[in-house]
Amino acid sequence: METGTSKAPPRPLRVALAGVGTVGAGVVRLLDANARLIEARAGRAIRVVAVSARDRDKDRGVDLSPFAWCDDMTAMAARDDVDAVVELVGGADGPALTLARNAIAGGKALVTANKAMIAHHGLALGEAAEAAGVPLKFEAAVAGGIPIIKGLREGAAANAIDRVQGILNGTCNFILSTMEDTGRDFADVLAEAQAKGFAEADPTLDIEGIDAGHKLAILAAIAFGARLDLDHVSCEGIARVRAADIARARDLGFVIRLVGEADVEQSGSGGAARLLQRVRPCLVPRDHPLAHVDGPTNAVVAQGNYSGRLLFQGAGAGDGPTASAVVADLIDIARWAARNGSAGGDAGGETGGAFSIPVGALVAMAPAEPGERRGRTYIRFTVADRPGVLAEITAAMRDAEVSIESLIQQGEPDEAGEVLVAMVTHEGAERCVSEALRLLDGSASLTAAPLVMPILAA
Ligand SMILES: NC(=O)C1=CN([C@@H]2O[C@H](COP(=O)(O)OP(=O)(O)OC[C@H]3O[C@@H](n4cnc5c(N)ncnc54)[C@H](O)[C@@H]3O)[C@@H](O)[C@H]2O)C=CC1
Ligand SMILES: N[C@@H](CC=O)C(=O)O
Ligand code: NA
């Protein structure tokens, strides 16, 4: 039926994009390629109006000419024709943080993929966003393209969750699974991960487990309603994992994966909740859901008290998947802005703020002590090729009450005259393994610190 009046289309959500590297260029491509479906789903078009990066003339494979170029990204965020700022620069502090603070203070919605910044400053930024009444969103910061933040804060919102476990770094997973499949060298596979855009600008953040630690801390805050506590995330990376460990694990029926685990334990009846957060290379049994996660794929297992076990899996790094998460956040902001009539209003009211609940309601949890936790452990010793070494190791195990399930010595010493000895323990308390290693500390028989990897329960 003709009414004679035609409604003007809603104003587009106008976006300022800071950082046009792997992810930023992916966002430009995705907004262009899927413009029509995004507009239909968001209820309005989403348009980049201004961009900022370090090098204006660099060829990024995307056409930036339709957008205003701004040398100063913080000034860009303050433009009157910008509703939402997307921060894809990276770095916990520096220009990314200055931009984020100023954008929020200036009443702009903020989307970021920057897990380092959120892990370090997420509480302060979340409080600032609540005070300013603007959305702060960071789906891309945890497990790239997997909608894990949405999944936990919306899909699993009715559940108490007391444990999350996952593969949270695409670069490390790519390295470990490629080394396992092809026998290629660590440095060579890392270089490929960098070339594919998976790695951080400083790849030591990936291989030392720090990037996975950032993501785990954010995940724990979302899943458990805990105050972000990066200081108590213990991180161990994959740099010390050798091809020989991968081969030995395979012979024993395991794969090696960098796994982040966080859980909440209640100390006593009605006692305070304690939070354990750690990232470590682990031996994963072949029938565990994380064992078949290969390449830059990430996966998160969350245990809800009504949903049961939830498994989220998908691409954890790379331009397309990460852009998908960034643009999903922008679509949420466009929908929210439509409900609120602008990019202002009660940003947290409907969705619980950046962390599911207001920052002030997050619970400060003391770190849990893992010593009494029980499990099986893989320990790889690098030893001098001389008599008595195995006796010394097994004596330390006996004295620390560690029960040995198997002990495998590599056949021949390597060029450096070193021999690898791989041990698997029976299930026992973690403190016993720590005590055995303390007894061996400084031993002349060991040529390097032992590599300790827990064996995940199936
Ligand atoms: N690459 C990936 O797969 C993923 C990356 N992320 C995060 O997304 C963010 C961006 O990552 P990438 O796109 O991979 O990084 P990138 O290094 O490819 O791009 C960074 C961009 O920021 C610009 N930039 C950096 N420092 C700057 C400065 N001081 N002033 C002005 N511009 C500056 C660079 O010119 C470049 O355009 C980071 O926080 C990263 O941790 C998150 C998930 C996945
Ligand atoms: N460097 C990160 C990128 C995504 O967060 C990774 O490898 O996972
Ligand atoms: Na995600």
UniProtKB/TrEMBL annotation:
CDD domains: ACT_HSDH-Hom (cd04881). Belongs to the homoserine dehydrogenase family. Gene3D superfamilies: 3.30.70.260, Dihydrodipicolinate Reductase, domain 2 (3.30.360.10), NAD(P)-binding Rossmann-like Domain (3.40.50.720). This is Homoserine dehydrogenase. PROSITE patterns: ACT, HOMOSER_DHGENASE. One of its GO terms (biological process) is threonine biosynthetic process. NADP(+) binds at residues 18-25. The keyword Transit peptide does not apply. Pathway: Amino-acid biosynthesis; L-methionine biosynthesis via de novo pathway; L-homoserine from L-aspartate: step 3/3; Amino-acid biosynthesis; L-threonine biosynthesis; L-threonine from L-aspartate: step 3/5. NADPH binds at residue 115. The active site is at residue 215. One of its GO terms (molecular function) is homoserine dehydrogenase activity. Residues 378-454 form the ACT domain. Its EC number is 1.1.1.3. Coiled coil: none annotated. L-homoserine binds at residue 200. InterPro entries: ACT-like_dom_sf, ACT_dom, Asp/hSer_DH_NAD-bd, HDH, HDH_cat, HDH_CS, NAD(P)-bd_dom_sf. Keywords: Amino-acid biosynthesis, Methionine biosynthesis, NADP, Oxidoreductase, Threonine biosynthesis. It comes from the Bacteria.
